[in-house]
Sequence to fold (628 residues):
Amino acid sequence: MFYRQAGDFKSSYREDLQTFALKQDRWAYYALLVVAFLVVPFIINDYWASAVLLPFLILAIAALGLNILTGYCGQVSLGTGGFMAVGAYACYKIMTSAPDLSIFFVVLLSGAVTALVGLIFGIPSLRIKGFYLAVATLAAQFFLVWLFNKVPWFYNYSASGQISAPERTMFGWAITGPNAEAPVRYLFCITIVVLLAWIARNLTRGRIGRSWMAIRDMDIAAEIIGVDPLKTKLLAFAVSSFYIGVSGALFFSVYLGAVEVGEVFGITLSFLILFMIIIGGLGSILGSFIGAGFLVLVPVLLKNVMVNGLGWPTDIAAHIEFVIVGGLIMGFLIVEPHGLAQLWRLAKEKLLLWPFPH
Amino acid sequence: MKNHGTSLVSNIEPGQEVLSVQNISLSFGGVKALTDISFDLVKGEVRAIIGPNGAGKSSMLNVINGFYHPQEGEVFYCGQKRNAMKPHQIAHQGIARTFQNIALFKGMSTLDNIMTGRFTHMKTNVLQHAFWRGPAEQEEIENRLKVEEIIDFLEIQTIRKTPVGRLPYGLQKRVELGRALAAEPVLLLLDEPMAGMNIEEKEDMSRFILDVQEEFGTTIALIEHDMGVVMDISDRVVVLDYGKKIGDGTPDEVRNNQAVIDAYLGVPHE
Fold:
């Protein structure tokens, strides 16, 4: 009734091109930003930061990155964990070799390094497609993890083989290291998330995004329109890897603080991110966030209900959690194979007409 | 590199040759798809390519826009011999096409499909797009104006924002024509634009093809099986059969050509 298009006229193409075409959507978005930046930092505590918000935000970046590659450009990748490891190790190497560099730029540089690595592993995509490409990226996953385990230079010859983030500050506040406070870490991550989500939206709404989607939907037609498949796919690999690298750098430095590559950045993580974008919605920025939210929040919620609420033993709760999450994933995919973002879109279409659908 | 088709064709007068293929032979292993084919397209004409199934018509189009590289023969475009090129490079020379089976981008709206057709006329880079405001947005809006002209021309205003997967077949064919037109092509290759259409849709499509020829001066190569349409709208016809050229000329000449009649109706075998 209040959520409607009627009366919201667009009088220029510029207005027609805006991200949130409806007034109500725009307000909701601004309200969300205000809450995220001005309210949450004052009420956040360590539990919420480390169990919910930080993993959600950081994995959402990785999901955005994979969605650019798989959802928009149609190139399936199972190497996400490996590329996040590249971001993490690049971050560690840059932090330890250039201690004065601001952590913000360290994170962006880690993304750039990952973009280069992603570019190299993207080259086979010109020749192989679909499942075969997925297998090729799987090779990247295992190779990269093996590399970071085997070559001591990457972990600065530390005895444990682990990497751990030294303390770095911005404007006097510790962002990484043991003294970092929850609100500061949260603010640092959400700033990067908002920035990267905005850029992802910009990239996908115009010429670049259309060339990716053209390759995804019909590569032969894309080619006769003038889209160079190699350049377009490599660009998608580079941009996607940049996002995934930034995510890996944050995952290591801000979220975990110390990392053992095989445990954290294994194939499980690759699949987790892939599930996020499939459940959230392929080819949707919003879907990346919904998917990340779903797969981070639901397990936490279930654990709280079963262990703290019902008083079940943790091990049984953990197993039941797997069953329920798996069941939910299948359920959602049967109801809407195009993901939660599509469900949301359909709900909004209905809501626009409510309560007079005809 | 931007689309430079218009500048390539600028010194070609109407009635002069835009593209000619000379002695093209193409084979896949032992199968000869095309044998020694030569013909030309002059500026501003509708040139039909006809022939029974498997005659090599689509292969001929694939040679022209660079999917196949013939073993023998040459392609001359706008007066110059064309070197071996990739399809996306040929697109930048102003050659656009539609496909026999609809090859639209299913996940995108009508508008986005046609906007994608403007790809060769846009040149903003990734960094400009990352920040959107400024050159990227400006370029999108300028090209949107051109796309809206095409949407008006093809009378598809109402389906502007509909995902193309939801459209009926006839409209999809029309959107595909729009996508090809968006490139402002010098030479437009249409591979069976009227296949599977009813009479009304065929009439609409014929009207659009003739309007394109008249308003934009585009040279059109047309593959079509409906002889009525071919004879009505084309200026000249080339007939292929088993990869060989068996007829070439105005519709009337072709209609009375004995080899063409034999190919279509069959001849008794001794």
